[in-house]
Amino acid sequence: MNDLEFNLIEKAKKGDHEAFNSLLLKEQKFILNLMFQLTGERAEAEDLTQDALLLAYRKIQGFRHEAGFRTWLSKIAINLFRQKYRRKPKHISICLEKVKVPADDSNPERLVIKRELQWCIIHNLQQHVPKKYRMVLVLRDLHNFSYKEISEILGWSLSKTKTMLHRARQIFRNHFINGKCKVFAKDYLCICEGILDL
Prior knowledge:
The chain is mainly alpha-helical and 198 residues long. The chain folds into two domains: 3-84, Rna Polymerase Sigma Factor, Chain: A (Orthogonal Bundle), CATH 1.10.1740.10; 96-178, Winged helix-like DNA-binding domain superfamily/Winged helix DNA-binding domain (Arc Repressor Mutant, subunit A), CATH 1.10.10.10. The protein has eight helices and no strands. α2 (17-39) packs antiparallel against α3 (42-59), α5 (108-128) packs across α8 (158-178) and α6 (131-142) crosses α8. The longest helix is centred in the N-terminal third of the chain and has 23 residues, at 17-39. The protein is globular and about 55 Å long.
């Protein structure tokens, strides 16, 4: 934590709304991306982000500088995600109509292929990796949190964090490589649930 962040937090704890807004402005997009990677739904991610920011505002007096502000805010957001998604959501297939191709791209076919592969990765994360493993995988491999930070966010010991991450990577890799979610056909198509038999 740098001095500027420390000072902003201390001002926010004393009721300075502008200081708190400065802190949130820096982290809002990060939390939104984190929630989207966990939920797969933009509206749900926005709702969870908003809830996390409001809760952080209410709890800022309890911030003790034991972790960075991003770690603390991520823990709040992850806990909200856990509460909202206690039951496993029904399986949702990928809709290719959501893939948008910018008009100015010189090779739109490659862009569609890349976007489809990205959807395949996110789909695999959201539909085939259990929530407890998905959280640690997203925090470490997509957002580069340290093992210590992940331990603080999820409330796990350091050894449990490392074990869960190892298992999460195995589950993701096994399903992505051996499952029908990744059939590296000529154009890297995501073929799930036996839509096509190759």
